[in-house]
Amino acid sequence: MTRRTLALLLAAAALLASAGSPAAHITPPVVLLSDRDALASLLAGARRFFVREVRLSAEERAAIRTQTGWTPEDDLHRFYLGRDAEARLVAAATFVTEYTIHGPVRVAVALTPDGRVRGATVVELTEETYGWVKPLLDQDFTRRFVGRPASARITEPTGGEPMSQFYGQVIASLVQRGAALYEVAIRKRGDAS
């Protein structure tokens, strides 16, 4: 085999190896709401605020996977607890993110002490996904999740443009993940009182 043939084979192998996995094309982020504003809205009525960092055990990660089909990649999660003047829990909120081929979608999810969705809001996405998510935002799409228990299957939208449907499914999944995290990491540990 000549040097030239070897060089061509190596170049072809390198090209094939790089073409084997699809590459994400991420556009600049669009911050729809600051974390502070999202928490102020979702924890409305609270007078005292606390941050609780929770490290998931292997059993808790397995419980979340069983409930949602999703396995948390991180074992450390942060919850923001809002309490009233008598130190009773008003709500807890967390932020969850899904990394799609078009970039990340980040949602803030708040839950009541008994594990029902209190509210959810999309806080950040990319310029590219904004056009697909905007119709959902205009419909106040996340309102459909309010009152749902953490154990309930949260459904995605039907009808509409396919990419909007896809991102509706992503958002619904993020709300479900936030609810499952709360159920396992806060309620079952007795931190919801």
Summarize the structure in short.
The protein is of the alpha+beta class. The chain contains 5 helices and 6 strands, in the order H-E-H-E-H-E-E-E-E-H-H.
Label the structural class.
alpha+beta
The residue fraction in helices comes out at 25-40%
What is the beta-strand fraction? 25-35%
Large-scale geometry: globular
Please state the average pLDDT score.
84
Short descriptors:
six-stranded antiparallel beta sheet, alpha+beta, 6 strands, 193 residues
In terms of topology, how is this protein built?
Blueprint: H1 3-19, E1 29-31, H2 35-42, E2 48-55, H3 58-68, E3 76-83, E4 89-100, E5 103-111, E6 117-126, H4 127-138, H5 162-187
Antiparallel strand pairs: 1-6, 2-3, 3-4, 4-5, 5-6
What would your notes on this structure say?
With 193 residues, the protein is α+β, with helices and mostly antiparallel strands. A hairpin with a 5-residue loop joins strand 3 and strand 4. Helix 3 packs antiparallel against helix 5 and helix 4 packs across helix 5.
